[in-house]
TrEMBL record:
Protein name, entry field: DMSO/TMAO reductase YedYZ molybdopterin-dependent catalytic subunit
InterPro entries for the chain: Ig_E-set, MoCF_OxRdtse_dimer, Mopterin_OxRdtase_euk, OxRdtase_Mopterin-bd_dom, OxRdtase_Mopterin-bd_sf
Span of domain Oxidoreductase molybdopterin-binding: 55-226
Species, as recorded: Streptosporangium brasiliense
Every Moybdenum cofactor oxidoreductase dimerisation domain range: 273-364
Amino acid sequence: MATVDESVSPPARVADPGEDISLDELRLAARNHGMPLEALRYDVTPVGLHYLLIHYDIPHLDPQAWRLRIDGHVRHPLTLDLAAIRARPYVTHRVTLECAGNGRARLAPRPISQPWLDEAVGTAEWTGTPLAPLLREAGIRDGAVDVAFTGADHGIERGIEQDYTRGLPLAEALREDVLLVHTMNGQPLPPQHGAPLRLLVPSWYGMAQVKWLVRISVLDTPFAGYQNATAYRIKHWPDDDGEPVTRIRPRALMQPPGFPDFQTRGRILDRGVHEVAGRAWSGWGPVTRVEVSVDGGATWAEADLGPQPSRYAWRAWRWTWHAREPGRYDLCVRASDAAGNVQPVEQPWNRQGMASNQVQRVPVLVR
Ligand SMILES: Nc1nc2c(c(=O)[nH]1)N[C@H]1C(S)=C(S)[C@@H](COP(=O)(O)O)O[C@H]1N2
Ligand SMILES: [Mo]
C-alpha cells in the first residue's frame, strides 16, 4: 500500500488557546449537519432533519448486488441478500441517537474534530430484524467475546487506512433489542443513514450504529480496531488508553424560545408568559427529572415530564416561564436519570471531546 503523506492525517491535537475553528473543521461541520433545535418539537424527527455523522464518503451500494456476510468464530458462515433480510421477522423501535462528540466545540481547550455544539441528535422509528437469532443460526462457537461490524465506507484516519469497523461485546450484540435496520420512519433507509442496512444498538452513542453494513464477524479475541482502541475513548493525555465510550449520558435540550437574531442566533422574547419545551433522554435508564434555570444555573425549577414513549426515545418536558422583567437571561436545562446521573453545569474535559453532556445555555433578551 502506498504511504500517505503525513500532512493528510495530522496527529490528534487540541486547539491552542484562542485558536479559531479552521476551514477543515468547518468542512466537517458542513457535511455532518446537526438537527435544528426547533425540530425538538417533533416526537419523531423528520428524516432530513435528523443529525448526520459520516467519517468518510457515503458509499453507493447497489441493493441488488449487496450482500451481508456473517463469519468468524461461527460454525456456519452465512451470506444473506437484502430480500432474505427483509423477509425475516421485524420490529420497530423508536430510538434517540446522539453522536458521542456532541458538545465538543464548547470544550476548552477544544479537541480538533467535528465541532458539534448541542445539536448532534435525532429520533427515528427504526425497523429491522433482531440480530441475535441470526448470530445463533450462524452457530456462535465457544470462546467468542466480541462481534465486529464493518461498513462499506473506506477512508483514512490519523494515518490508519480502514473500512469503518466497530467492535461490540458479544453480550451486547445478543441483546434482543439490537437490530439490523432497513427502514427509517417507514421509508427505505436513505443513503446518508446507511442504505441498505445498518446496525442499531439502542442506548449506545452513535459510533456503535454502523451504517452501510456488509460484514459481521464473531471474534474470539477482543476487537482491537481503530474505532474502538483509538477513536471512541475518554482520554486525558496523549498516550492515555482511556475508557471506552458506550451508553448515552443524560441530556435535556430546549426549543429555543422566541425568535432568533440571524447572525448570533440570540433569542428575543416579549415580556409575558412563555411555555418553554424540549426533550430529554439517557442511555442509562429513564429520565426521572428535568430542571430549568433562567439565571445561568444558579437556581433551578422543576419542569413537567411527558410520557416515556419508548425505553430508548427522548421524553418531552415543558415549563411555564413568567418573564416579568425586561432584561437578559441565561436559560439552562438539565436532566437526571434513574441511574442517578445528573448533567453537569461545568463539563469535565477529555482530550477527544467524547460523551460531553454539559447543560445547554440559551441567552435570551426579554423586551
Ligand atoms: N459505516 C459507518 N457507520 C457509522 C459512521 C460512519 O462514519 N461509517 N458514523 C457513526 C457515527 S460516529 C454516528 S454518530 C452515527 C450517525 O448516524 P446518523 O448519521 O444516521 O445520524 O453513525 C455511526 N455509524
Ligand atoms: Mo458520532
